[in-house]
Every structure is written in structure tokens, then in C-alpha cells.
Amino acid sequence: MTVPEHVAIIMDGNGRWAKQRGLPRTMGHRKGVEAVRETVRAAGAAGIKYLTLFAFSSENWRRPEAEVSDLLGLLKAFIRRDLAELHRQNVRIKVIGDRHSLRSDILGLLLEAEETTKDNTSLTLVIAFNYGSRDEIARAVVSLARDVEAGRLRAQDITPALINARLDTAGIPDPDLIIRTSGEERLSNFLLWQAAYSEFIFLPEYWPDFSPEIFRSALETFASRDRRFGGLSSQAAAVGT
């Protein structure tokens, strides 16, 4: 089976999972953290090299203050509880998103996770936190504009590769597969540049119900796809059509 090098997941549906069960939204988020742990283990076992999880978008700050506080608390608890285990599993952690406006306690934990695991060589777990793709692209463009303004770069020399190198994901291959749970079928400002040739799988299950079995089924679906990258399919090329 063809295994994707990079899988990205929009973890959606925690609140609706809780509502269906008459539970507070916070319980859905807590159950979602358990699904994260299982998914990281399953990705490593499958031989996936990069797993990107959309943990907290730049738009999530608009949610009720109590829910934001709980989400931040869960992130801190996850790093404090799981960092040592991830390190033992040779997992490297990379954080993408705007760091400039983050609280010092959150930023410190994220930097600690990156520093502790920077030399690990197994799965790279990319955590998209305070992340929005349009913001990411805008920051990359500003960086290039400053170089043009300073005379370090000519505008006509700007290429897609140069833009790619200024994104938060520089050095990380584009996702082969993007999965979204909860039945929604949109990217929601996630990896817009990087998703140019990604395969998409939209699942009806809410994120807390995402299991290793569901993950394996999604990987099997991916393996059955004929990826053309703008060219002919492998079958068409073989017969010269």
C-alpha cells in the first residue's frame, strides 16, 4: 500500500460530539485529546513521516473566553504530559502559526517542545497553533517585500519556490492527504498554499470518534487514488491517451 509521506488533519466536531451526548463542549475537547494521542501512534506505526494537526486557528480566539481558556489549558496539559513520551518515541515536534501575539507561558511550552525534540528522526508532528493560512502567506509576502525594499532581492526574481521558503512550513513537504472530520467539506483557512495537489478525504465521524481503524481506512482510500499532479493518469499514459 502506498503510504502518504505527509498527512494533515482538520480535527473538527469536538463540540458537536459533546452536544449529542448532553455534555459540555469542554468534554468534547478533552476526548479529542485522546484521539490525538491514538492518531500520533497510528501515524508512526504506518510509516508516515509528517503529521500536521490543526490544533487552534487564528480565528478560534473569537470563541467564548471560557472555551478558549480550556483549549489553552488542554494544550499545556498535553505538552506537559506527553512531551517525554513523544521524545522517547523519537517524534520531532514543529509548531506553525503566528507566535508574536502568544502569551509567554504558551509560547514557552511550544518552544520547549521544539527544542527538546529537534534532533529526533522518526515522525514529525506539526502542530498548527494560532495558525491561519492567509495570515501565513501575508507574513511571507511582507518578508519578501522587505527584502525588495532593502535591495536584497529583485521583485522579478520572486518565484513560487521563494515564497514557499518563507512560509511557516518551509522544509516540510506539502501534504499528500488532508483529512477533515465531522462531515464538513472545506479547508477553513488551513494550508491553502500547500494543498495545491493534496488529496482530500472528508469523514462523517466527529474528531473524538476518530480511531486508528478509521485512520487506516482513510489511508487505504488514499492508496487507491490516481494522483496526476496536472498530468495524465498512470493508466492513460500507459496506453498513450
From TrEMBL:
Binding-site residues for substrate, renumbered to this chain: 13-17, 25, 29, 57-59, 61, 63, 180, 186-188
Alphabetical GO biological process terms: polyprenol biosynthetic process
Cofactor(s) in the UniProt record: Mg(2+)
InterPro entries: UPP_synth-like (IPR001441), UPP_synth-like_CS (IPR018520), UPP_synth-like_sf (IPR036424)
Active site: 12, 60
GO MF annotation: an example: ditrans,polycis-undecaprenyl-diphosphate synthase [(2E,6E)-farnesyl-diphosphate specific] activity
PROSITE patterns assigned: UPP_SYNTHASE
Coiled coil: none
CDD domains in the record: Cis_IPPS
Stored Gene3D superfamilies: Decaprenyl diphosphate synthase-like
EC number: 2.5.1.-
UniProt keyword list: Magnesium, Metal-binding, Transferase
Cofactor, free-text remark: Binds 2 magnesium ions per subunit.
Self-association state and partner proteins as the record states: Homodimer.
Protein name per its UniProtKB record: Isoprenyl transferase
Record organism: Rhizobium esperanzae
